[in-house]
Amino acid sequence: METSLEHVRIVLVETSHPGNIGGAARAIKTMGLEQLWLVRPGRYPDPQAEWRAAGALDVLDRAVVVDSLEAAIADCTLVVGTSTRARRIPWPLLTPHELGQQIRGESGERPIAILFGREASGLTNDELQRCHLHLQIPANPAYPSLNLAMAVQVVCYELYQASFDGSSDVDAWDRELAPVASVDSLLKHLEDVLARVEFFDRDNPGQVMTRLRRLFTRIRPDETEVSMLRGALTEIERALGVRGADTGPK
Prior knowledge:
By secondary structure, this protein is α/β, with parallel strands linked by helices. It has helices spanning 18-30, 47-53, 57-62, 69-73, 96-104, 125-129, 148-162, 180-196, 208-219, 223-239; strands at residues 8-13, 35-39, 64-66, 78-82, 93-94, 112-116, 133-135.
Protein backbone atom coordinates (compact mmCIF):
# COMPACT_ATOMS: atom_id res chain seq x y z
CA MET A 1 0.00 0.00 0.00
CA GLU A 2 1.38 3.40 -0.97
CA THR A 3 1.13 6.35 1.44
CA SER A 4 0.39 9.76 -0.13
CA LEU A 5 3.16 12.36 0.12
CA GLU A 6 0.92 15.19 -1.03
CA HIS A 7 0.85 16.72 2.45
CA VAL A 8 4.67 16.96 2.69
CA ARG A 9 6.13 20.35 1.77
CA ILE A 10 9.81 20.96 1.10
CA VAL A 11 10.73 24.42 2.42
CA LEU A 12 13.89 26.17 1.20
CA VAL A 13 14.93 29.09 3.41
CA GLU A 14 16.69 32.05 1.78
CA THR A 15 18.20 30.03 -1.06
CA SER A 16 20.77 32.23 -2.80
CA HIS A 17 21.32 30.33 -6.09
CA PRO A 18 18.27 29.79 -8.31
CA GLY A 19 19.85 26.66 -9.79
CA ASN A 20 19.42 24.97 -6.42
CA ILE A 21 15.72 25.82 -6.46
CA GLY A 22 15.38 24.17 -9.87
CA GLY A 23 17.42 21.15 -8.76
CA ALA A 24 15.24 20.79 -5.66
CA ALA A 25 12.10 20.94 -7.81
CA ARG A 26 13.45 18.11 -9.96
CA ALA A 27 14.29 16.04 -6.87
CA ILE A 28 10.79 16.61 -5.50
CA LYS A 29 9.06 15.47 -8.67
CA THR A 30 11.22 12.37 -9.24
CA MET A 31 10.34 11.14 -5.76
CA GLY A 32 6.60 11.72 -5.97
CA LEU A 33 6.32 14.86 -3.84
CA GLU A 34 4.51 17.97 -5.03
CA GLN A 35 4.96 20.90 -2.67
CA LEU A 36 7.85 23.39 -2.83
CA TRP A 37 7.81 26.45 -0.57
CA LEU A 38 10.41 29.22 -0.80
CA VAL A 39 11.16 31.60 2.08
CA ARG A 40 12.72 34.85 0.83
CA PRO A 41 14.65 33.36 -2.12
CA GLY A 42 17.57 35.46 -3.33
CA ARG A 43 16.71 35.20 -7.04
CA TYR A 44 13.37 33.81 -8.10
CA PRO A 45 11.82 33.47 -10.62
CA ASP A 46 14.99 33.00 -12.65
CA PRO A 47 15.90 31.19 -15.92
CA GLN A 48 18.55 29.13 -14.09
CA ALA A 49 15.87 27.64 -11.86
CA GLU A 50 13.84 26.65 -14.92
CA TRP A 51 16.89 25.17 -16.64
CA ARG A 52 17.86 23.03 -13.64
CA ALA A 53 14.27 21.91 -13.09
CA ALA A 54 14.23 20.19 -16.49
CA GLY A 55 10.88 18.33 -16.63
CA ALA A 56 9.72 19.62 -13.24
CA LEU A 57 8.54 23.06 -14.34
CA ASP A 58 5.10 22.23 -12.96
CA VAL A 59 6.63 22.03 -9.47
CA LEU A 60 8.14 25.50 -9.97
CA ASP A 61 4.82 26.81 -11.26
CA ARG A 62 3.11 25.64 -8.05
CA ALA A 63 5.90 26.85 -5.74
CA VAL A 64 4.69 29.06 -2.89
CA VAL A 65 6.89 32.08 -2.10
CA VAL A 66 6.52 33.59 1.39
CA ASP A 67 8.23 36.37 3.34
CA SER A 68 8.77 34.49 6.61
CA LEU A 69 9.35 31.03 8.01
CA GLU A 70 6.29 31.50 10.20
CA ALA A 71 4.11 31.77 7.10
CA ALA A 72 5.56 28.52 5.73
CA ILE A 73 4.98 26.40 8.84
CA ALA A 74 2.09 27.98 10.78
CA ASP A 75 -0.46 25.31 9.77
CA CYS A 76 1.94 22.35 10.05
CA THR A 77 1.74 19.74 12.80
CA LEU A 78 5.26 18.40 12.18
CA VAL A 79 8.29 20.51 11.24
CA VAL A 80 11.69 18.92 10.57
CA GLY A 81 14.85 21.01 10.22
CA THR A 82 17.99 19.79 8.46
CA SER A 83 21.26 20.48 10.25
CA THR A 84 24.87 19.37 10.01
CA ARG A 85 26.07 20.78 13.33
CA ALA A 86 25.71 19.64 16.94
CA ARG A 87 23.76 22.08 19.10
CA ARG A 88 24.35 23.31 22.65
CA ILE A 89 20.89 22.08 23.64
CA PRO A 90 20.30 18.79 21.81
CA TRP A 91 17.02 18.23 19.93
CA PRO A 92 15.41 14.94 18.85
CA LEU A 93 17.49 13.82 15.87
CA LEU A 94 16.69 11.57 12.89
CA THR A 95 18.41 10.26 9.78
CA PRO A 96 16.54 10.52 6.44
CA HIS A 97 15.64 6.81 6.67
CA GLU A 98 14.20 7.27 10.17
CA LEU A 99 12.29 10.32 8.97
CA GLY A 100 10.66 8.20 6.29
CA GLN A 101 9.42 5.80 8.94
CA GLN A 102 8.23 8.69 11.11
CA ILE A 103 6.22 10.34 8.35
CA ARG A 104 4.73 7.00 7.31
CA GLY A 105 2.80 7.00 10.58
CA GLU A 106 1.67 10.62 10.42
CA SER A 107 -1.87 11.73 9.66
CA GLY A 108 -2.38 13.12 6.18
CA GLU A 109 -4.88 15.71 7.43
CA ARG A 110 -2.34 18.43 8.24
CA PRO A 111 0.81 19.46 6.33
CA ILE A 112 4.34 18.43 7.25
CA ALA A 113 7.28 20.74 6.54
CA ILE A 114 10.90 19.74 5.97
CA LEU A 115 13.21 22.75 6.15
CA PHE A 116 16.47 23.22 4.26
CA GLY A 117 18.63 26.22 5.11
CA ARG A 118 20.96 28.57 3.31
CA GLU A 119 23.71 27.12 1.14
CA ALA A 120 26.51 28.72 3.18
CA SER A 121 25.15 28.65 6.72
CA GLY A 122 22.10 26.39 6.90
CA LEU A 123 19.30 27.13 9.35
CA THR A 124 19.83 29.49 12.29
CA ASN A 125 19.50 28.32 15.89
CA ASP A 126 16.21 30.21 16.19
CA GLU A 127 14.86 28.50 13.07
CA LEU A 128 15.93 25.08 14.32
CA GLN A 129 14.17 25.73 17.62
CA ARG A 130 10.92 26.07 15.66
CA CYS A 131 11.25 22.42 14.58
CA HIS A 132 9.93 19.31 16.29
CA LEU A 133 12.80 17.20 14.97
CA HIS A 134 16.25 17.75 13.50
CA LEU A 135 17.59 15.72 10.61
CA GLN A 136 21.17 14.90 9.67
CA ILE A 137 22.29 13.04 6.55
CA PRO A 138 25.06 10.55 7.45
CA ALA A 139 28.14 11.42 5.40
CA ASN A 140 31.93 11.27 5.38
CA PRO A 141 33.04 13.04 8.60
CA ALA A 142 35.99 14.52 6.74
CA TYR A 143 33.66 16.17 4.21
CA PRO A 144 29.99 16.01 5.26
CA SER A 145 28.73 18.96 3.18
CA LEU A 146 26.11 18.21 0.49
CA ASN A 147 24.86 20.53 -2.21
CA LEU A 148 21.38 21.79 -1.30
CA ALA A 149 19.59 20.06 -4.18
CA MET A 150 21.46 16.82 -3.42
CA ALA A 151 20.35 16.97 0.20
CA VAL A 152 16.74 17.44 -0.92
CA GLN A 153 17.13 14.42 -3.23
CA VAL A 154 18.42 12.18 -0.43
CA VAL A 155 15.57 13.09 1.91
CA CYS A 156 12.87 12.82 -0.76
CA TYR A 157 14.21 9.41 -1.80
CA GLU A 158 13.80 8.05 1.73
CA LEU A 159 10.28 9.45 1.96
CA TYR A 160 9.38 7.86 -1.37
CA GLN A 161 10.74 4.47 -0.32
CA ALA A 162 8.89 4.58 2.99
CA SER A 163 5.63 5.54 1.27
CA PHE A 164 5.24 2.06 -0.23
CA ASP A 165 4.91 0.38 3.15
CA GLY A 166 1.41 1.03 4.41
CA SER A 167 1.99 -0.59 7.81
CA SER A 168 2.28 1.72 10.79
CA ASP A 169 3.13 1.28 14.45
CA VAL A 170 1.45 4.59 15.33
CA ASP A 171 -2.01 4.30 16.91
CA ALA A 172 -4.73 6.67 15.72
CA TRP A 173 -5.07 9.71 17.98
CA ASP A 174 -8.48 10.97 19.12
CA ARG A 175 -7.76 14.64 18.33
CA GLU A 176 -5.89 16.53 15.62
CA LEU A 177 -2.36 17.52 16.59
CA ALA A 178 -2.01 21.24 17.22
CA PRO A 179 -0.43 23.23 14.38
CA VAL A 180 2.71 25.28 14.94
CA ALA A 181 0.83 28.57 15.25
CA SER A 182 -1.28 27.23 18.15
CA VAL A 183 1.74 25.92 20.04
CA ASP A 184 3.56 29.23 19.47
CA SER A 185 0.62 31.09 21.01
CA LEU A 186 0.62 28.70 23.97
CA LEU A 187 4.35 29.26 24.53
CA LYS A 188 3.94 33.03 24.38
CA HIS A 189 1.09 32.80 26.90
CA LEU A 190 3.18 30.55 29.15
CA GLU A 191 6.15 32.91 28.92
CA ASP A 192 3.99 35.87 29.98
CA VAL A 193 2.58 34.01 32.98
CA LEU A 194 5.97 32.67 34.12
CA ALA A 195 7.44 36.16 33.92
CA ARG A 196 4.55 37.61 35.96
CA VAL A 197 5.09 35.08 38.77
CA GLU A 198 8.85 35.80 38.54
CA PHE A 199 9.72 32.26 37.62
CA PHE A 200 12.42 33.84 35.48
CA ASP A 201 13.73 37.32 34.72
CA ARG A 202 12.35 38.44 31.35
CA ASP A 203 15.51 40.51 30.77
CA ASN A 204 17.77 37.54 31.53
CA PRO A 205 15.72 34.38 30.83
CA GLY A 206 18.62 32.04 30.21
CA GLN A 207 17.48 28.87 28.41
CA VAL A 208 14.13 28.50 30.16
CA MET A 209 11.89 29.13 27.15
CA THR A 210 14.20 27.27 24.78
CA ARG A 211 13.93 24.16 26.92
CA LEU A 212 10.19 24.56 27.34
CA ARG A 213 9.85 24.91 23.55
CA ARG A 214 11.86 21.71 23.17
CA LEU A 215 9.50 20.00 25.61
CA PHE A 216 6.37 21.00 23.71
CA THR A 217 7.82 20.22 20.30
CA ARG A 218 8.86 16.80 21.60
CA ILE A 219 5.48 15.86 23.07
CA ARG A 220 3.48 17.45 20.18
CA PRO A 221 0.23 18.28 22.04
CA ASP A 222 -3.11 18.00 20.29
CA GLU A 223 -5.57 20.86 19.86
CA THR A 224 -7.62 19.93 22.93
CA GLU A 225 -4.52 19.76 25.13
CA VAL A 226 -3.38 23.18 23.95
CA SER A 227 -6.83 24.64 24.67
CA MET A 228 -6.80 23.10 28.18
CA LEU A 229 -3.37 24.55 28.94
CA ARG A 230 -4.38 27.97 27.62
CA GLY A 231 -7.45 27.83 29.85
CA ALA A 232 -5.36 26.89 32.90
CA LEU A 233 -2.97 29.78 32.23
CA THR A 234 -5.91 32.16 31.92
CA GLU A 235 -7.24 31.05 35.32
CA ILE A 236 -3.79 31.64 36.82
CA GLU A 237 -3.87 35.16 35.35
CA ARG A 238 -7.29 35.75 36.89
CA ALA A 239 -6.01 34.57 40.28
CA LEU A 240 -3.12 37.00 39.93
CA GLY A 241 -5.56 39.81 39.20
CA VAL A 242 -4.45 40.36 35.62
CA ARG A 243 -6.97 42.63 33.94
CA GLY A 244 -8.73 41.43 30.83
CA ALA A 245 -7.65 37.79 31.19
CA ASP A 246 -9.69 35.58 28.89
CA THR A 247 -9.35 32.34 27.00
CA GLY A 248 -8.86 33.94 23.59
CA PRO A 249 -5.63 33.83 21.57
CA LYS A 250 -2.84 36.11 22.65
